UniProtKB/TrEMBL annotation, chain A:
Residues 100-226 form the B12-binding domain. PROSITE patterns: B12_BINDING. It comes from Streptomyces musisoli. Keywords: Cobalt, Metal-binding. This is Cobalamin-dependent protein. It holds the Pfam family B12-binding_2. The keyword Cytoplasm does not apply. It comes from the Bacteria.
TrEMBL record, chain B:
Pfam families: STAS_2 (PF13466). Signal peptide: none annotated. PROSITE patterns: STAS (PS50801). This is STAS domain-containing protein. Residues 20-102 form the STAS domain. It comes from Streptomyces musisoli.
Amino acid sequence: MSAPPAVGTDALVDELWQAVADGDEYTAVDVVRRARADGADEETLLLDVIAAVQDRVGSEWAADRLTVAQEHAATAISERVITALVHDRPPAGGPDRAPKGRVTVSCVDGEWHALPARLVAEVLRLRGWRVDFLGAQTPTPHLVSHLHSTSSEAVLLSGSLPTHLPTAHAAITACQAVGVPVMAGGRAFGPDGRYARALGADRWAPDARAAAAQLEELSFPHRSVPRQVMDDLPHLTDQEYTFVAQSRSRLVRQALTGLENRFPALRAYGDAQRERTAEDLAHIVDFLATALYVDDSALFTTFLCWTADVLEARRVPAHPVATALAVLGESLRDFPRALGLLADGTAALADRPLRPAPGPDTEA
Amino acid sequence: MTDLPPPALRLTVTHGALELTVDVAGDLDLDTHDHLVETVTEQLARHPEARGVRLDFTELSWIDSVGLSALLMVHRRTRAAGRALYLDNRSALLERLLRQTGTLGHLTARPGRGEGATGANAT
Amino acid sequence: MTARFPHNHRKRLASCGSMRDCCRKTSVVRCREVVGRVRGASPRVFGTSGSPVDPPSAAVSVGAAWAHAPYPVIVADRDGALVELNDAAQVLWTDAARGDRLDDTVPTWLADAHGRFADGTREGTGLASGAVADRFFEAHPTPADDGDVVWWLVDDTDRRLAEAALTGARQRTALLADVSSQLLSTLNVTRCMEATARMATDHLAEAALLVAPPQGRRHQLTYAYRGGPVTRVTAPVDVHAVPGLAEALQGFPPVPARWINPADLPGWVQPADFAGPVGSVIVTPLPGHGVPAGALILLRSSGEQAFSGDEELFARLFAARAGAALSAARLYTEQASITATLMRELLPPRLESVHGVEYAGAYRPARDNERIGGDFYDVHPGTDPGEETLVVLGDVAGKGLDAAVLTGKIRNTLHALLPLATDHERTLTLLNSALLSSHHTRFATLVLASVRRRGSKVELRLTSAGHLAPLIVRGDGSVEETATRGSLIGALPKVTSATANVTLRPGETCLLYTDGVTEARGGPLGDELFGDDRLKRVLAECAGMPAEAVVERIQMLAAQWVGSGSHDDVATVAISAPRAADLTVAGGQGRAGGTTYRRNG
């Protein structure tokens, strides 16, 4: 963060959090409007209050203190708070501010988490950019045709879930092939932006303020750089990513069978429970495939440890995750990189700090 | 080349004394609906002696709204030609689609007076 | 051939006279011709010894044949004095005479090479190469008696020229390929013009100005200056002020650069950073697909070399590529804008709260490269809060543009029938007869919902015309299927329908949806239907959510269920009774014992 949060931000965050957690849209909008009337800077409200509250929504969900419904309601309310804030904004930033260039802010195809991108879009608008905000779940062909039909000088691509990195890569290369530079941002690209670099993004920004600052430095116009995914990620020639991604369903089925053989009690579960286990396995396979794509085991181990934490927060034992890795390994014997990742994952799970074991688990 | 996948929709026509039977197997959908309509239309023209057409759905695996549209067209053409249409061995999926869309009665009603040229009257 | 030099002829050579008498008058200005003449000279015996320039070491170890060799040959002693030179060499150095210092006679590269060869510091064979006048030679040394060195010069000019030409051609081809790839990658006219101007300054000129065809009386002007930014303005400039520009914009052949007097150019032709004055200029049309795509003006300041004929030719090749790319971009832009205009009518509307009821809609077309498809929805607000708002959601058999056109017809017809919409059955009957056709049995299924808020509750009248029955999400998390049935629209002679009445309490939601949700195929195991039961289970978790959140969640789960697989159009509309402000979100709907991953991390 380049600017220190304004005094009193913490109190505002608490107040807004309470309203959002209660699903109380009116109070939430009121809190922010009042702060604005009291002289709070809009950018501070967006980034140090609303974004902070949204971070808390995420961590409270992970800790099982918010339901899915509450989380969705909270996000919807945050959206409405932003809308109200923007609605109150005086038109066009003031006469002394010459308009800067035009940029496009979009989420990666398949990414539903639109709020971070929305915050970036609003901050850039505040700073005088003309922003086309394409929102969540933007198919890459829509993004590219948008670039053809507008004169955007840059694309800011937002991704939260790392499993969208291969799709993000396709979007980055497509935009650059059209001659538009891409700045990547969001958790998907890694805490230090390493995946943004791996995928050939022109820039990476850790947050909205940094994105705004970096945008000033990007040089325009840009050369078109047509290239293939292999040019960025030569390891993909080993086909391990392709195999794992294409065999997703089969790997999940095999792993499910393998798990049921080791934990016969699983068979007694209902269809819904079985489906959840299958979903969990599908996530593991998705993250494994993505880690193969970017050739980075930290991506896989971080996900596994987070998963284990989330499970334990819900009083579900986490050790079947390690078993799932072992079972997956049996299906991937011919794939050394995948086996390496599974081994790293197993080690990372074993190294995790011990937590109070919730509930008895009788499986041996 | 020898391992081409089976066609998504397989139609088998058998001729009885007074009826044509068409076994409808596979998927009846956007990609295949024309095939059914064309086959039945052609058979109607070729067999003026047949009083009725039986579509047998024992092996139907999938039908979507475009497939239903094809059934409605087949119905319209058989009726226009003064023949009866029977939908035999309807799967649960087909039955449900017909009920949901309110077309079951229409498609399975016995031809009565004045109903012979239902579709042709429409504009 | 140095190896085959006949040593036994050296004595005869030793008596050679000077060959400069026969050749010295010849100019080296047209070297090629001279060499030809020397080659054609008849053999002769060189003069006798005793010439004033006869060096003391005249006993040079070379044979007589060398004198007439078609290649220049010189002999020098270890001290760097010229011992002998043949006819061909004399042509190169017309004033050279025996005894001259090599340093004063031949170019430095050869004199230095000789020095190195003579004192033994040479590397390898001692082969040297360099220019003599405007020709290029390789000089091969062979040792002779007494430390003399015979230098055999092989004219390498043509090969060098051919290589240079080849390299130039390759560079130009590579450049043109790069130009095409840069320009064809974008279908955006502005970006294409900028790239053209920028590449013109990278490769052809100090400054470039691209003049677009006029829009009214104004032209878009794109300026580039080497090393500077590309700038754009739109201005009413007089194109006749630039010689050849008006013609270029009309597609006439370009005026040769040498006909244009740079002093005649108006000031607006130069970019702001251009130091000027203009030394030379090229004006070339950008030929498009049938119509000119604009014109390109290339400038060099008087300090730089003027454009050569080759460069002018190359500039035209460049302009041809740029013109083709610009035309493609223009064509795309026109098509895209026509499509956008036609599509605007077919796009689903944005929904918001109306008369105290929350509405939210979301639509995902089957094909990712299209924005429209066979599903549709509309909300027609009542004229005042006491009137019912009509909501319609439907699905036309088929996908893509064909289906979308039919949705447009249905939506327009329904809009026209709004005054009658309180009577659902009558509305559906009228719509049915409007759509019925003898040519096809393409039909639509749809749901009509008439919505009105009463106090804190919302009253709905719901009628399905062959469509999936709407689902009601109650405050306690139970999910009800509404009891409405009816026949589809547009294929049957007569429609029937039954309307259901539903009341929503605060926080409760009615979901209208298309079969794209329930028929989504995928899931963790790959080939399962999303199905009714899963939809109801998921909706149960949506109790108490705002309408937008319900719609977003259903769309998200359906999309994630399908993953990268193909899917049908998916449309969802949620109608919600707003929660009272003091109610807290219905808690306790979390999934017991199970886990899921938070959407998008």
